[in-house]
Design a protein that fits this description.
The complex is a heterotetramer, with two copies of chain A (213 residues) and two copies of chain B (228 residues). Chain A has five helices and 13 strands. Chain A is α/β, with parallel strands linked by helices. In chain A, strands 4-3-2-1-5-8-10-11-12-13 form a ten-stranded mixed beta sheet, with helices on both faces. A three-stranded mixed beta sheet of chain A has the order 7-6-9, with no helix packed on it. In chain A, helix 3 (88-96) runs parallel beside helix 4 (132-138). Chain B is an alpha/beta fold and 228 residues long. The longest helix of chain B is centred in the middle third of the chain and has 12 residues, at 100-111. At the A-B interface, helix 3 and helix 4 of A face helix 4, helix 5 and helix 6 of B.
Chain lengths: 213, 228, 213, 228
């Protein structure tokens, strides 16, 4: 694992999440690793939603970039066949109302019930939340992607989040470069898969949260 | 009748110090750059700006921020402009952070004559502090209040002279909502056409919401903001 | 006055209200006498709103009737130049949000503060309200048109409404075949005009509500 | 993928006794007449129907009413069908009357994941009885709850096979709202086209709201309802 670059790690996680997506479905991709998921989706019946007002996001060639056509990360995107534009209240009505099938989000921390923190760090100014809280309460399924540990090696899967939580709702699955967890109905983490090259010992060592093996 | 104005300065005549102003856009995308530029030239202060972001550092609303004209910002993602943090640390600006969907919904509620609404977004988080929580049919919600303003500065693609508006791709974002929630609504567009040229089925903002229209002189391109 | 047919009376009232409308403005016309007002509007800058989803109502020739293009009374209408269609929640957002400049409505009763009853009769089933309550709370100005008395000759301008009120909001002006009243800022009726052929004695006799002459 | 179904019967397969059903239309204008007709042939009972009206006497939802399949009606103007009063007098139907704007807004709130909202409409009237009243910034409002349903039956003009919808003139009315507020959304249209044939700027209902599409076989014309 130590020979993998950060970028390779991110792509590996993105590729793994993509396998969970079976169309027809609508999916909202967050910033960071989630954005990479689009590269690995195999099903044609997956429709990407971006909360700034488009259902039907595709990638775009450099020469076709339109400065007024972007995703929630303000990156240039393309318009899929069968797309639709809408305003921000309509977009979040879709999200909050339960009409988006899945959201793939990054996280700073996840607790052992699957509750995540992904919008603020204590001690710093709380300056931005964007659509994170709306996606957490509204998306039918929430999949979290993140590196298993922080830069300093400390676990991100914790007993309790020490950062402000994004929602009281537990996510459905968590994907790291070491493992895939699901959150059970009674809100426990369950290890469902080791990622290539990872060992159960390494996962145990780098995870503070209790999980079912 | 035409709502067309000859200049941004004329369109902004009614704007005054202390006003609450809705400003469209998601970052610079769909932001009314010409009107914002004119506002930076106008002698006003103590503004409350409701906008998803406060521009970028030194761009769009970021200029207004650096001029010290903004007393308070209400938005969802100030992180996109690092100057906001510095101003906040220095106690030079108040900030109210709302989830993006709540920001959008509160503006819509303001335009629709509602007082407030119960949403699931934010329940149990730091952003619910001080807000009323209540269960409805077994689900916990928090109460969010409507947002209304003195002025809205928005960006559309085309207007007819009556004030009917259509938008362009993801530059639509907050603009149609903001068009409904201010006493005075000022729009900049790429093109002003005659009544009858927009298809009635495709008009997104009907004209009764709009007060003044100008042609955009500051436009977002692949190369950044340019004057046209 | 007694030689006037009911239809003539209605047209006379409609013609009088039309004089109050100075564009540019948006106006919502109710069913009955209000619908007739469109025939008498002299200003080109008046845009008619109908709550079932159209700004820009005009009249329509028999041969151009489209069954899917109607007003709130389900009567066929035409589409003006510069019109726009929208859904019912957008339409009522316009009304409730104070974006429609004037509503012209019928009434069953008006009390001496200008509060009206126009949607239900006690003792009968309360079966329909439509957009009446929304227009009352939302339109910037509300003009009421009605015959001065009921079929049995009893006054409709009363001290108190005996029918269920439509809103606690006082209307702005009341137009009958005998007189025009405005509602003052301190919520009193003030006679502003006698209609052609009417006498102050007749108005006094047929009006139960107190009014300033 | 296509959401096109071969018949109204196939589209209505999931509908069952006791369901709450949103039905589009303002009277017969924009009502899903083909789906309603099929519903009158289906063996279901105890339905709660949310619709502005309950059709006209012996037409549209009026047939379903006369069949005794409707347990409760929620709407704003039942007066357009005289049979509703008779059924109500006989104790054969429950009715909930809402102002038209409140009916529309409550359905929108349901689709948008809100619990309820504070509106000025109805304050101080008989229709506010039993509803919470509260002042917000000095203005009295009443609390209205969101409406959600098991099924929505709606009428649009065109659909692509993904389920994107556009509407026609004043036949739009409640249909786009209802498309957002039910677990299963079934649409009838004049024409089904391929993805890409509708302009993304003009789509009113994006496809993620829609479950099944059929072509209309019962259509409103100048001469009344005809089979096509």
């Amino acid at each position: 694992m130590t020979t993998m670059t950060k970028q390779e790690m991110q792509h590996m996680i993105a590729e793994r999440v993509a396998k969970e997506l079976k169309g027809p479905m609508s999916v909202n991709l967050g910033i960071g690793i989630p954005t990479l998921v689009a590269e690995y989706m195999e099903d044609d019946d997956i429709y990407l939603h971006t909360e700034n007002g488009l259902l039907g996001v595709t990638d775009v060639e450099e020469e076709d970039i339109d400065p007024n056509l972007v995703n929630a990360g303000k990156l240039p995107v393309g318009e899929a066949v069968g797309a639709a534009y809408f305003n921000s209240s309509e977009s979040f009505a879709m999200i909050r109302g339960g009409h988006v099938d899945a959201a793939i989000l990054g996280a700073l921390q996840v607790d052992e019930r699957g509750v995540i923190a992904n919008w603020a760090v204590p001690g710093k100014n709380i300056m931005g939340v964007g659509g994170a809280m709306d996606l957490l309460v509204g998306a039918k399924k929430v999949y979290v992607t993140m590196t298993h540990t922080s830069k300093d090696g400390s676990p991100k899967l914790l007993k309790e989040c020490t950062y402000p939580i994004t929602s009281t709702r537990s996510v459905d699955m968590i994907f790291t470069e070491l493992a895939v967890f699901e959150v059970t109905e009674d809100k426990q983490l369950r290890l469902v898969e080791l990622m290539p090259g990872a060992t159960i010992e390494e996962v145990r060592e780098k995870t503070e949260a209790a999980f079912i093996e | 009748m035409t709502k067309r104005k000859q200049s941004a300065a004329e369109a902004l005549e009614l704007v005054k110090s202390g006003d609450t102003i809705l400003v469209g856009g998601f970052g610079l995308i769909g932001a009314p750059l010409t009107l914002i530029d004119e506002l930076t030239k106008k002698d006003v202060a103590g503004l409350t700006i409701v906008s998803n972001n406060l521009g970028e550092s030194g761009k769009g609303l970021g200029i207004l921020l650096n001029q010290g004209k903004i007393k308070k910002g209400i938005g969802s993602y100030f992180t996109s402009n690092r100057d906001v943090g510095d101003k906040y640390q220095a106690g030079e600006i108040e900030l109210e952070l709302l989830p993006q969907g709540t920001l959008a919904e509160s503006i819509r509620a303001g335009g629709a004559g509602l007082g407030g609404y119960y949403t699931t977004t934010g329940v149990g988080t730091a952003l619910a502090e001080g807000k009323e929580e209540r269960e409805i049919d077994g689900v916990p919600y928090i109460l969010e209040k409507a947002i209304r303003a003195d002025v809205a500065l928005i960006r559309a693609h085309k207007a007819d002279t009556l004030g009917n508006l259509v938008y362009y791709k993801t530059a639509r974002n907050f603009n149609p909502l903001m068009a409904t929630a201010a006493k005075t609504v000022i729009v900049e567009v790429d093109e002003i056409v005659e009544p009858g040229e927009l298809n009635p089925e495709e008009v997104v903002t009907p004209h009764l919401f709009v007060d003044a229209i100008i042609e955009a002189k500051q436009v977002l391109t692949k190369e950044g903001v340019v004057s046209v």
